[in-house]
Amino acid sequence: MKRFSLIVPCILLAAGMRAQIPEDSPRLASLVRGGNAYLSLQDAIAIALENNLDMELQRLGPRFADTEVKRARAGGLLRGVPLAVREGPKSVSPAADVLSPALGPGAETNLSVAGQTPLSTGRVPPSLDPVFSAKIRQDHLTAPQLNSFLVGTPALVTDSTTANFALQQGFLTGGEITAGWDNLHQTHNHRRYDLRPFNTSSFGIVFTQPLLRGFGRTLNARFMRIAARSRTQSELVFRQQVISTVAGVIRLYWDLASLQADVTVRRQTLERAEKLLADNQAQVEAGTRAPIEVVRARAEVARSRRDLIAAEALVRQQETVLKDYLTRNTVTDPALANIRFVLTDPLRVDREEKIPAAADLAQKAIERRPDLVQARLQIESTRDALKGSKDAMRPSLDLVATVRNNALAGDVNPLTLPGAAPHTPDAILLGGYGTALAQLFRRNFPDYGVGVQFTLPLRNRAAEADFTRDSLALRQQELRIRQLAKQVHVEVENALIAVEQARATLAAAASEREFQEQALAAEEERLAVGASTTFLVIQYQRDLAQARSAEVAARAGYLKARAALDRAAGGLLETLGITVAGAEASIQ
Asked: How much is the pTM?
């Protein structure tokens, strides 16, 4: 397999900007000469990785994962990331597709062991983003009184202005702290109050810390760890999509090369048939051959021309499939419609290539295949989620501590009851809003409190069911990953058998083609001296054409089988020298 270096860029659009699908890269246009695109396998892979829409979709995967990381750092619940990978399209070639034995072309697979596992939340982590709230309100209240003796008036009229502010912050320990500053300015017609109008102000802090359920950084940071793994998983999904796209291009490229080579075989067969017709016509005119021989030769020319037309149609159809896979534009676009591919990499096979043992290939596959690496990460995330389910079964014991400073200040109430003795409030209470603030800072009227609150569910069946379900899901995934490991051995073994079969098939096809060439040459010599017939020569020509087509298909089959083995062993990108990198690069 020809090696080359290629860096796969990953498009990440700037946050907040509207996504724009860029146009095709100029690489394909730069290869066009006189309406023909001279395309190597290296160029085809590079163009697909730059332009293919499946790749474009997967480039958005890390951005989805980044939003998960951001939500987790804020203490939010996760929404999940897409893990689907799409296989390449099916060729029009009648040859069997050996590159993706487990997945048909065009299929979509999920890299997760059992899909994106629903996470049992347990106790939701506290909000790690600070929250500021404010409330400003103006009220006018008129309240009729049942007993005017209490307030000194039959109707209590109050005008109030409220301004309250609060700041809340959560911590990974599970605790939350809330700081509140409340302010009230009030004017009233109450005759028994000492102050009118008056201002109240208070500043308090409430701290709540779980001691059992919801306690600990390990528990409350579980979604952060899961989100970080999701980010890694999205990169593995992108890598798997690169592998899938490269595999699809290889299959489509060699199928097109095979079909183009078959057109050459059909054209040579037609030329042989036309030469035989010309020779027969000359001999019929000379009277040395019966006219029926010309009829037979003409029939063979028509048959060969029909086969050539069918082969050329397959080439055009395969070109259409390949164009669609390599570009973002539609195949009917004028810039693409008239381009014909001239493949510059021949169907060259190294028959002496040594293939490693199946056990060694399988062991490397288990270590480096992205689907297995992703599956192991998924198990770790499920174990973290299980911690939340287990914690939800514990009773709730919370430590609550409060501290608050209070203030009150106002003017002497001028409204007094008739005949009542004048009353002067304490001097510390007389003044405006500034006096109230001074009381806060001096802590003239402090409040303190500390305590615990305990909650014990007498039946906690929902939490128990969640824990049991998540435990079973973890066990299921551990069993599934063993199945995947076994499946890798099967895929590697089958791919290795396919390579051996393709190599043997190619050797047999090459031998058959050599013998058919010798047989046809001998029969044409016999026909020249009148010892054979046109019918027999035509049969030998057909056999040779079939043998040449079979050899062409066998060459393409071996190259596809070899790529399939590299893919099954997890080394396709390394074999081709492709590096998945450039997370911040953008193709314009």
From this structure: 0.83
